[in-house]
Write a structure and sequence with these properties.
This protein has 214 residues and is of the alpha+beta class. It contains 3 helices and 11 strands. The protein has helices spanning 4-14, 23-30, 168-213; strands at 37-42, 51-54, 67-71, 77-82, 87-91, 100-110, 115-117, 120-124, 129-132, 140-149, 159-164. Strands 1, 2, 6, 7, 8, 10 and 11 form a 7-stranded antiparallel beta sheet that branches. A 4-stranded antiparallel beta sheet has the order 3-4-5-9, with no helix packed on it. It starts with a helix and ends with a helix.
């Protein structure tokens, strides 16, 4: 009993030992959270704009069936034109350096005789992509991404990419032609199998008849 007395006093004073954190909690705490992308859309001819936040589309890759990628000279800016008419812009991380404030995305499109400006976007330094929810078909767009730094560092040259979005009617025609082409291929395969089956059965009937006539 005298030997157990110090252990009992320590338990009353300090409480039970703290359990060790589980492996799942340790891994969750060690993994960094994805940074939110703050951005502000400024309509044409307006100096205002509301601050918004979005999750970056990390790991997105343009698939040839549902997307068409257009790259700027040098490949620093990529416009992924999707079948639903939206455009996901992705850009490379600038070179390491202090004073990066964010990015400015300028938009314009070609008209019949001149080029018209569209909404510009100001993005935070943590942004690496931006989604244009809907782009007009048959219009050639030009998007230029300009990094912004604190003074006195000068702004580097902007990266520009040009692309054209297929009209919705053309996308529907392409989808319909793909579906019809797949159906035609299935029908041709079925017809070929049917012809082969009929030919084999006819040969099994004709060969014994010829043998009997001889």
């Amino acid at each position: 009993m005298p030997r157990l007395l110090p252990a009992l006093l320590a338990l009353l004073c300090f409480g039970p030992p703290t359990p060790a954190p589980s492996a799942a909690l340790t891994e969750a705490a060690s993994e960094p959270e994805e940074p939110w992308c703050p951005y502000k859309v400024r309509p044409e001819g307006s100096a205002g704009g509301r601050l918004c936040f979005r999750r970056p589309a990390l790991g997105f890759q343009c698939s040839a069936r549902s997307c068409r990628a257009h790259r700027s000279p040098g490949g620093a800016l990529v416009a992924n034109v999707l079948l639903n008419g939206s455009v996901l812009l992705q850009w490379a991380t600038p070179r390491p350096g202090n004073g990066l404030r964010g990015f400015t995305l300028n938009c314009s499109w070609d008209g019949t005789y001149t080029r018209f400006p569209c909404d510009s976007v100001e993005l935070g330094a943590a942004c690496r992509d931006y989604l244009l929810p809907e782009a007009h078909g048959t219009v050639r767009y030009q998007l230029c991404l300009q990094p912004r730094y604190n003074a006195p560092r000068p702004a580097p040259p902007a990266h520009c990419v040009e692309f054209r979005v297929e009209p919705a009617a053309m996308r529907d025609i392409v989808v319909a032609m793909t579906a019809v082409g797949g159906s035609i291929c299935v029908m041709l395969v079925f017809i070929c199998l049917l012809v082969a089956y009929i030919t084999e059965n006819l040969m099994t009937l004709i060969i014994p008849a010829l043998s009997r006539q001889q």
